[in-house]
Amino acid sequence: MDGDQYSDDPKSPLLPVSDPIEPSSSSTSPLKSLATLKNFFVLLGPLLCAVICVCVRFDGPVSSRNMLAVLAWVFAWWLTEAVPMPITSMAPLFLFPLFGIASADSVAHSYMDDVITLVLGSFILVLAVERYNIHKRLALNITMRFCGDPVNPPLLLLGICATTAFVSMWMHNVACAVMMMPVATGILQRLPVGPNQPTLVRNFCKAVVLGVTFGAPVGGMSTLTGTGVNLILVAMWKGSYPEAIPIGFNTWFFFGFPLALLIFFALWAILCLLYLSRGSSQALAAYLDKAHLKRELDLLGPMAFAEKMVLAVFGMMIVLWMTRSITDDIPGWGALFNGRAGDGTVSVMMATLLFIIPNKKQKGEKLMDWNECKKLSWNIILLLGAGFAIADGVQSSGLADVLSETLGFLEQAPYLAIAPAVCLISAIITEFITSNDGTATLLLPLLIQMAKTMKVHPLVLMIPGAIGSQFAFMIPTATPTNIVGFTTGHIDVPDLIKTGLLLKIAGTAILSFLMPTLGAYVFGTNEEVQ
Questions:
Q1: pTM, whole model, 2 decimals?
Q2: Beta carbons of 431 and 472 less than 8 angstroms apart
Q3: How does pLDDT run across 117-143, given as a tens digit for each residue?
């Protein structure tokens, strides 16, 4: 910039005064600039809402029709992304009161409950893990154990995938993929690149990137905090059946971990069959060994006090989650507080400790400061809140009863056929239409009504629907974890489709087997819901 634009004179204007810009004769007309596809999508939501309000008539209360109109508006914006998804997620806060579905206070409560606090506290601990590079140290240590000497490609692939899946159990799968992909590609940097890259080396690179890309969502299925879909499922179950036993961290883990473990080994087997052959070990031996991994680890230096304390807080949180409610005979520490403490209580309490414990790096500095928390994933939190609000609105408006009546033909449908079908439908929607969380938010209220119509336990359909929405493995844009892997340049669309289709089929088969067996024992789906 020119120095004469600014003056030391206190009376001079704060901003430089420039000559007025002459309008360009070639500029587009205002009408033309408004007639864009994006603006059409913005209008599509209110238009659909208006059409439903004018043309649709239900036997139930007017609020049920209004709820359907609001759903059309919100999902139109979600599917087209006409408005940023976090902003669309806040739409129920003004649409519900204006359409007479719920009061402003009641809908606002959906955006802050125990599940939301569970996510908030967990995200803060994840940020602490990122701040001190604990995830990278953990990845390198575990990968070194699996490398083999000489290098064993299937075993090394297992170590990288297992590390990703394990980390994803305790943080959101997207954050896990973002953190683990640089670790994985760092291991691959010693391998030759370019057009002369040997086929065996190229295939190993594809296997590693696909292992991280798919290992993150698979590992996230194990715990409530690994993915937003699990939290949406738990919250909708709690909102629709407040008298029933809630699904706690411990309860879900007893089902989710075996499920994720079986799908994980299916993933590893698929990658080994498609991308690793007998000559892979010889092809990689000249480029990849334990010495490279050890050098990466040495660069991090010895574990500092701050890292140890963050790990201790993280471990304490996991133990408290697991022991809050154990069994009917062994109630856990939650009984000391008459059931008032939830998983969110633990999450926020442990996160608070990070702002109290010093990091011993600088005087007065704590393990975490609020500036780090500005990176919190508010978009996920708002989307969760919208899901909970919609689930409550479907119930309170009477739309749930209307939907239940229209699904009467499903009463005769056998469960063994409907459960895999629900999983596949959910998997297709999440692949081509909307996000994992959006699919769960859309389908779960409908599945609750289907379960009532079929006279089966709601979780019999809700869990396949929720897990199926996480089987977004085939399209690069289907989920952020796919985008993370695709942008590395090591894989292309055919790799995603080929591997993702096999994994989707394997996952559906495993879920269809576990749901009526282990699921019936863990969730009591053979009993009548309260």
A1: 0.68
A2: yes
A3: 877 887 788 788 878 888 778 767 777
